[in-house]
Design goal:
Length: about 260
């Protein structure tokens, strides 16, 4: 059964999901034998840095989707108790992408907003401030964005002066209001209602429901990330992240590892 998920009652804070099902093709041959989320950064698996970031900002319940070498991730992390968290796994026999993966995990969210992290992203971000921004603006979704001179190469996200996202990779509103160029940092908060039209058991991207919501005039916001961020997607970026951790540019996990 690929979905042994039990909806848990809220513990006063938002649910979280880490996307960890990807194949890691750009990091082969490293990822032939180890899933990308378990690659070590300063001796600590990348996904554990994300778990400890969640723990630092008050999260308790985390769902992790699995596909490529998924049992290795499950064996490494267990039920999450050593990190002070409760981990539930959403196993994908067929990889479902960001949209399909979130749709399969939907029962876990119990209709509440969910914070989503990419399992291959190393970031220093105040997740509590992000959630408060999302809540105060009563947004349907909030995407964490970054200023980057190569934003178009990552996939251009256009945001207006009120932090509303106008277009994602050219799709969305058609008006010509002034916008600021950004790139999507792979961290987002969404209301599960956005998943209503996502097909079950079919691979898809969560960006499609976001674009549809923008076109409907729903509030889809951008939230700028000013702190450390790295997408561990290539051998070069992996090596750079290792250097950055060694240099102390990001020190989230090493200070918090349980005994």
């Amino acid at each position: 059964n690929p979905l042994p998920l039990t909806p848990y009652p809220s513990q006063g804070f938002m649910k979280a999901m880490i996307l960890a099902a990807g194949l890691g093709t750009r990091l082969r041959p490293l990822t032939n034998a180890i899933p990308k989320p378990l690659l070590p950064i300063a001796g600590t698996p990348l996904i554990v840095w994300n778990l400890l970031l969640l723990k630092r900002h008050g999260f308790h319940d985390v769902v992790i989707n699995l596909h490529h070498l998924g049992p290795m991730i499950e064996q490494a992390l267990g039920n999450g108790s050593r990190y002070g968290l409760r981990i539930i796994y959403s196993r994908e026999p067929t990889i479902l992408g960001t949209g399909g993966g979130l749709k399969q995990a939907e029962p876990y969210f119990s209709g509440e907003p969910v914070l989503v992290l990419n399992g291959d992203t190393l970031v220093d971000l105040d997740l509590g401030a992000l959630y408060e921004f999302h809540r105060q603006r009563n947004a349907m979704a909030t995407l964490v964005l970054r200023k980057d001179p190569e934003a178009a190469g990552w996939g251009l996200v256009e945001m207006d002066s009120d932090n509303r996202i106008v277009r994602i990779t050219g799709r969305g509103r058609t008006d010509q209001a002034p916008t600021q160029p950004r790139m999507f940092a792979g961290i987002h908060v969404l209301r599960p209602r956005l998943l209503r039209d996502v097909p079950k058991g079919v691979a898809s991207s969560i960006i499609d429901p976001y674009v549809a919501a923008i076109e409907r005039g729903e509030t889809v916001l951008g939230y700028d990330c000013e702190g450390y961020w790295s997408d561990i997607g290539t051998p070069e970026r992996y090596a750079q992240a290792e250097q950055d951790a060694s240099a102390g540019l990001i020190t989230l996990a090493t200070r918090q590892l349980p005994a």
